[in-house]
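Work Package 3 (structural annotation) set out to generate three-dimensional models for the target panel prioritized at the project kickoff. During this period the team completed the workflow that converts sequence records into discrete structure tokens, so that structures can be stored uniformly alongside our sequence database. As a representative example, we reproduce one entry of 187 residues exactly as it appears in the project archive.
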Amino acid sequence: MVERRKGRGRLSAIDMLPPEAEEVVAWAYAELRDRTREQKDIHAEFNAKLAKLGLGPISYSAFNRHSFRLAIMARRHEEVRAITSALTERLDPDDADDLTIMAAETLKTLVYELMEGDGLKPKEALDLAQALRAAETAAKMPLQRRREMEAKFAAQVDGALKRVGSEKGLDKDTLAAIREGVLGVKS
């Protein structure tokens, strides 16, 4: 297993470019992601665009390292998107809440596994606690949203029943039976 470096490491030449170069970096990333041109051609045009901004060139090796890191991140992102898409295709709309809860449970498991490993520094423990809290909040939100939507729907049904009941002269018992049939809730 490959061991990861501790910390962020040294900033790359591309990471150290000033803010005015962000658009050029984004352009290069988009070109690399499209995979329609060779990297050396993108690198040459990248340096030409930097020169127009009055910035020095970036070496091919630095550009290559940066594009390699971006490619790995993009691949991971696509894998996660594919997995999520496969899971959500199998779920009913009502099961979307289950997917959020599943993601929160997965994050909780990861946090606990990390805590059981080597001793955590206070900052790392704080970061994990915040991630766990965010996962718990995300898991609760779909349920709250669903309750809000059900309450809104019930209010709309009640409003429509009152209007139709008064127009058609329906009694309260008939309206209650209709409400129970539509909402599955007794008045």
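The two ends are 62 Å apart (CA to CA).
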